[in-house]
Recover the amino acids of this structure.
C-alpha cells in the first residue's frame, strides 16, 4: 500500500508539472506568434515606404492634388 501511495503522489506531482509546462508553452507560442506578426508588418511597412519613396515627385504632387479634390458623383476616371 505504501508503495502505491508513493507512485500516486509522484504521478500527481508530474501531472501538475505537465499542466504548468503546457500553459507556459502556450503563452510562449502566443508571444512568438505576436513577434512574427509584428515583424511581418514591419517588413510590409518598409516595402511600402520604399515604394512610396520611389514615386517621382511630380507624380506624387499630382496624386496629392487629386486626393484633396472631392470625388465627382457618377464619374470614374481610368488611365
Amino acid at each position: 500500500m505504501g508503495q502505491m501511495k508513493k507512485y500516486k503522489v509522484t504521478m500527481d506531482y508530474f501531472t501538475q508539472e505537465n499542466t504548468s509546462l503546457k500553459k507556459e508553452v502556450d503563452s510562449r507560442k502566443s508571444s512568438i506568434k505576436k513577434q512574427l506578426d509584428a515583424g511581418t508588418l514591419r517588413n510590409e511597412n518598409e516595402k511600402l515606404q520604399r515604394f512610396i519613396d520611389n514615386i517621382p515627385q511630380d507624380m506624387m504632387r499630382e496624386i496629392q492634388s487629386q486626393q484633396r479634390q472631392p470625388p465627382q458623383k457618377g464619374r470614374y476616371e481610368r488611365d
Observations:
- The first helix runs from residue 2 to 53.
- DSSP finds two helices and no strands in the chain.
- Helices lie at 2-53, 57-68.
- The radius of gyration is 30 Å.
